[in-house]
C-alpha cells in the first residue's frame, strides 16, 4: 500500500526536527525488539531502516517521507544495557521533547516483544504516551516465535500489565508478515490520509 519512502533527516536534538506540514506516525521500542524489521515489512522493502548488528547505535530520530503523504518517524531504540547513563539521559530528553511538543505527531506504534513482559522502559514510554494523550497501538512482535496456544494469553498479559484494552494490542510478525493491514489502517486513521 505504501510505496515511495524518502529519508528526510536524522535529528540529534529538537532544533533539527524538520519543518514541514506532513502528519507523523512514530515507531518506538527497545533496541533489538524488531522495530526495523516491522517498518520494513510495512513498507514492503528489505532496507529502509537499517537493521543493526550492534544494538543501541542509532541515537537520532529518523524522519522518512512516505508517498508525499505522511512522515514515518523512527525513534531511537532504548534500554540497551551497554549504553552509558549519559546517553540514556540524552535519549530521554530527545524523545520526551518530541512526544510532548511535536505538533505533527498524530500517533505512535509502540513495539514490544510478544514473548516477554514489558520492560521498565516500555512502562515509561506508556506513561509518556498517556500524558501526551497520543493515539497509540502496541505491536507485540516476533509472535511467530510463540506457540499458537500462547498467543491469546500473551496478548492479554501485555494489555493487563500496561493497563490498556485488548484492542490496543496487535500481534505482529515481520517474519510471517502478520499485522500489516491493521498497522496500515491505524496510520490512515490517525493521519487522515
Ligand atoms: P530493532 O533493533 O528493533 O530495529 O530490531 P531488528 O529489526 O534489527 O531485529 C532484531 C532481530 O530480531 C533481528 O535478528 C531480526 O531478524 C529479528 N526479528 C525481527 N522481527 C522478527 C520477527 O517478527 N520474527 C522473528 N522470529 N525474528 C524477528
TrEMBL record:
InterPro entries: G_ENGB_dom, GTP-bd, GTP-bd_ribosome_bio_YsxC, P-loop_NTPase. The keyword Cell cycle applies. One of its GO terms (molecular function) is GTP binding. Keywords: Cell cycle, Cell division, GTP-binding, Magnesium, Metal-binding, Nucleotide-binding, Septation. It comes from the Bacteria. Coiled coil: none annotated. Residues 21-193 form the EngB-type G domain. Its cofactor is Mg(2+). One of its GO terms (biological process) is division septum assembly. Belongs to the TRAFAC class TrmE-Era-EngA-EngB-Septin-like GTPase superfamily. EngB GTPase family. Necessary for normal cell division and for the maintenance of normal septation. PANTHER family: ENGB-TYPE G DOMAIN-CONTAINING PROTEIN, MSS1/TRME-RELATED GTP-BINDING PROTEIN. This is Probable GTP-binding protein EngB. It comes from Halarsenatibacter silvermanii. The lineage of its organism: Bacteria, Bacillati, Bacillota, Clostridia, Halanaerobiales.
Amino acid at each position: 500500500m505504501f510505496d515511495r519512502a524518502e529519508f528526510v533527516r536524522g535529528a540529534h536534538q529538537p532544533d533539527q526536527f524538520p519543518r514541514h506540514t506532513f502528519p507523523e506516525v512514530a515507531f518506538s521500542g527497545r533496541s533489538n525488539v524488531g522495530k526495523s524489521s516491522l517498518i520494513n515489512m510495512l513498507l514492503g522493502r528489505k532496507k529502509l531502516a537499517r537493521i543493526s548488528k550492534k544494538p543501541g547505535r542509532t541515537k537520532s530520530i529518523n524522519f522518512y517521507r512516505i508517498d508525499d503523504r505522511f512522515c514515518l518517524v523512527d525513534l531511537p531504540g532504548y534500554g540497551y544495557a551497554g549504553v552509558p547513563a549519559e546517553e540514556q539521559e540524552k535519549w530521554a530528553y530527545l524523545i520526551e521533547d518530541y512526544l510532548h511538543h511535536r505538533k505533527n505527531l498524530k500517533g505512535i506504534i509502540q513495539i514490544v516483544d510478544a514473548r516477554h513482559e514489558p520492560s521498565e522502559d516500555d512502562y515509561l514510554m506508556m506513561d509518556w504516551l498517556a500524558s501526551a494523550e497520543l493515539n497509540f497501538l502496541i505491536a507485540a512482535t516476533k509472535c511467530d516465535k510463540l506457540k499458537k496456544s500462547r498467543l491469546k494469553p500473551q496478548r492479554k498479559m501485555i494489555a493487563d500489565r500496561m493497563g490498556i484494552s485488548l484492542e490496543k494490542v496487535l500481534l505482529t510478525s515481520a517474519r510471517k508478515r502478520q499485522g500489516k493491514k491493521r498497522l496500515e489502517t491505524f496510520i490512515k486513521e490517525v493521519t487522515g490520509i
